[in-house]
From TrEMBL:
Species for this entry: Tumebacillus flagellatus
Record-stated family: Belongs to the short-chain dehydrogenases/reductases (SDR) family.
GO molecular function, a single term: oxidoreductase activity
Protein known as: 3-oxoacyl-ACP reductase
InterPro entries per UniProt: NAD(P)-bd_dom_sf, SDR, SDR_fam
Span of the signal peptide: none
Length: 262
């Protein structure tokens, strides 16, 4: 299947590590040109170099804290300067702090709103003029299986991911007439630094070893193991490709069957 991505331009936020990096790599393998954005410039430069070396595609980067409006503007200035067009937006961000209701005052709620929901609004706003210039586009939002089944001890994530999902569904209706398809991908337990961190927190809280925590989690997954970032990326990239011409407004769980809800 031809994904129709050759020479398309893709912006992947939070793209230096983990899921964002894997998605960016998969786009580059398909011949797309990629812009990565996250905070640590050295890490971005290294990731961009490695993806370009593996795939032969053009990979650019811009250091930006995407919880800030100015930083989102700077990302689009760089997209304009380097590529002058945009065909696909992948919204991704660092995971919010773990905790329960009693752990957080307004300041943390507000910061998480900026970093994990308003960032998506701002990123979409910045992408639309580019999409309208070329007469279409693709948006893929990376969220979590918590959009279907809230996860214990992650109240901030549970709240704001649901907001992204509702935003994406609304956008899919508003933007379909313009040829812009909007979908959400929801990772369950894909082996990245974030999952190592969450397993570590669980181990510290329960007195179990980190391996025990992982084995316990794997028992909840019908496929019997954590997913790999590449497995996650293949589904995300299909939805955000030009082979996808009829799927929009959907949230696809990439979780090895972990969530039991219909
Ligand atoms: N892995 C999973 O199975 C899983 C499951 C459910 C949900 N998720 C969610 O999916 C997202 C990606 O997860 P991951 O596992 O890939 O995490 P990760 O390996 O920890 O990578 C996080 C990425 O986000 C970037 N980042 C963090 N804060 C940022 C900010 N303010 N502005 C710009 N970039 C920022 C990081 O780079 P810098 O630190 O340099 O900025 C890094 O590139 C997270 O929101 C996570 O909670 C993941």
């Amino acid at each position: 299947m031809d994904l129709g991505l050759k020479d398309k331009v893709v912006l992947v936020t939070a793209g230096s590590r983990g899921l964002g990096r894997a998605v960016a790599t998969e786009y580059a393998r398909e011949g797309a040109k990629v812009m990565l954005a996250s905070r640590n410039e050295q890490e971005l430069a290294k990731t961009a170099r490695e993806i370009a070396a593996e795939t032969g595609s053009q990979v650019e980067f811009v250091a930006a804290d995407l919880s800030k409006r100015d930083a989102v503007d700077a990302v689009y200035a760089k997209v304009g300067e380097r590529f002058g067009r945009l065909d696909v937006l992948v919204t991704n961000a660092g995971g919010p702090p773990a905790g329960t209701f009693d752990n957080f005052e307004d300041d943390v709620w507000e910061q998480t709103f900026q970093a994990n929901l308003l960032n998506v609004v701002r990123l979409v706003r910045g992408a639309l003029p580019y999409f309208r210039q070329v007469g279409g586009g693709r948006i893929v939002n990376i969220t979590s299986t918590s959009i279907k089944q809230p996860i214990e001890g992650l109240i901030l994530s549970n709240t704001f991911r649901a907001g992204i999902n509702a935003l994406a569904k609304s956008l899919s209706v508003e933007l379909a007439p313009e040829g812009i398809l909007v979908n959400t991908v929801a990772p369950g337990r894909i082996a990245t630094d974030r999952i190592t961190e969450l397993d570590g927190l669980r181990a510290a809280a329960t007195g179990l070893t980190q391996d025990d925590v992982r084995v316990g989690n794997e028992r909840q997954i019908p496929i019997g193991r954590y997913g790999t970032p590449d497995e996650f990326a293949r589904t995300a990239v299909f939805l955000g490709s030009y082979a996808n011409t009829y799927v929009t407004g959907q949230a696809v769980l990439i979780d090895g069957g972990m969530v039991r809800a219909l």
